[in-house]
Amino acid sequence: NITPAVLPSLLQCDFGDLRGELERLTKAGVEGLHLDVMDGHFVPNLSYGMPIVAGLRRWTDMPLDVHLMISDPAAYIDAFADAGADMLTFHIEAVENPLAIIDQIHRHGIVAGVAINPDTPMDRLDGCVEATDAVLVMSVKAGFGGQAFRPEAIERLKSLREAYPDLLLEVDGGIKEETIGDCRQAGCDLFVVGSAIFGQSDYQTAVSRLRDLL
Ligand code: DX5
Ligand code: ZN
Hints:
By secondary structure, this protein is α/β, with parallel strands linked by helices. The protein has one domain: Aldolase class I (TIM Barrel, Alpha-Beta Barrel). 35% of the residues lie in helices and 19% in strands. The protein is built from 8 helices and 8 strands. The protein has helices spanning 18-27, 50-59, 73-83, 98-106, 152-163, 177-185, 195-198, 203-212; strands at 5-8, 33-38, 64-69, 87-91, 111-116, 134-138, 168-172, 190-193. Strands 1-8-7-6-5-4-3-2 form an 8-stranded parallel sheet. Helix 5 links the parallel strand 6 and strand 7. It is globular. The two termini are 16 Å apart. The chain binds D-xylitol-5-phosphate and zinc ion (ZN). D-xylitol-5-phosphate (DX5) is lined by residues 9, 11, 34, 36, 67, 140, 142-147, 172-175, 192-196.
């Protein structure tokens, strides 16, 4: 159990120097990595897939938290598990039978997460929160880094925390020094951070300032 933890989102990092980034993040003391997989279909942006996960897996023992922003998670879950993901999170908006996907993830012995976009009603999660290990509350619409935090996420985190004391809660989008504390107060465990780390020259300072607010 690594919570509460700051998880850097590898979306705005230097992909020409992934091992250097890994080294800097390890030195900065992060407890895991958040990997944003986008298919250009579920979201209008395209990032990377299994080879990056497998490549990072060869160079770090840190937990790899893979955020699947893809239209057909069932088709790729086995491949991402084989690539070395420790946690696989799919979007509730993308699937018809979330319970089957959660089962598929669990068959690999890894952590299952369900993500929900800000404009999706919370009742879409009915019936699957009990089955999943984690809920990822999106505090921006999935697709791009650097967007502004949507404060409705706080109420979502609070109500999930009240209803499910043991659920792993993760928040993603616009997390920085101004927003991380409120999310922690609301009961969140995992804090995904993109720009507020990769936009800084010194990752160690950026990470420790964020951690001090948890
Ligand atoms: C957005 C991604 C995020 C993103 C966060 O779709 O899921 O993980 O990289 O970036 P910031 O922290 O800049 O909002
Ligand atoms: Zn993400």
